[in-house]
Design a protein that fits this description.
single chain; 199 residues; mainly alpha; 2 domains; 78% helix; globular
């Protein structure tokens, strides 16, 4: 699946872009905001209840599980039902879990303390400033590096003897670095000057 161009064309034109569930992330965020602004007391009461804690750790588990599943691995080629279920529900489940954990961060629990400590760190501020430029650019380094990696592993298998996870980790690392460098350039040459015009 990873190197099958027909699969990628089908994946992005049919499954990724045209799913009826593609707006699930937006709906999850809207539902979370609705309950926070219009039912805050009931929401806080639920978040501190037993079932609220169960949902808290289930949400965390869902995020980890969906990040861990090797859905573009050749091992998943025979798991057609699992692939269909993943494509249908993964974005909505992931978005719902993230929205729920965002609400959890408003309450006091061990997980919310850890998440608040992690996500409120000043380390993230520069990346937050670059996030839109990174969003615009990230696809290009990934596509180029995946193609280069696949070609290298096919032509020189003894030299580039990587497992799926090793190859994906290296591509992710290199793509992230290239994306950040490109985003910094766009931010300094385009975004920042335009923001300065408002002053």
């Amino acid at each position: 699946m990873v190197i099958d161009q027909e699969f990628h064309a089908y994946h992005f034109s049919v499954l990724y872009d045209n799913l009826y569930t593609r707006f699930g992330a937006l709906v999850c965020g809207c539902i979370a905001a609705f309950y926070y602004f219009h039912h805050e007391n009931a929401l806080r009461q639920f978040l501190n209840s037993f079932w609220g804690k169960v949902c808290e750790f289930a949400s965390f588990g869902i995020i980890i599980l969906l990040m861990w599943l090797p859905v573009v691995s050749t091992r998943m080629d025979d798991q057609q039902t699992l692939t269909i279920l993943y494509q249908t529900f993964s974005r909505n489940l992931f978005s719902g879990a993230v929205a729920y954990l965002a609400l959890v961060c408003l309450e006091k629990s061990y997980l919310s303390w850890l998440l608040n400590l992690l996500f409120s760190n000043r380390f993230w501020y520069p990346l937050a400033q670059l996030s839109y430029s990174m969003y615009l650019l990230h696809v290009f380094p990934i596509l180029i590096l995946v193609q280069m990696g696949v070609n290298a592993m096919q032509q020189y298998p003894e030299r580039y003897d990587y497992t799926h996870w090793q190859a994906m980790s290296l591509i992710c690392l290199y793509a992230t670095i290239i994306t950040i460098i490109g985003a910094v350039i766009i931010y300094l040459l385009i975004e920042r000057p335009i923001m300065n015009l408002r002053k």
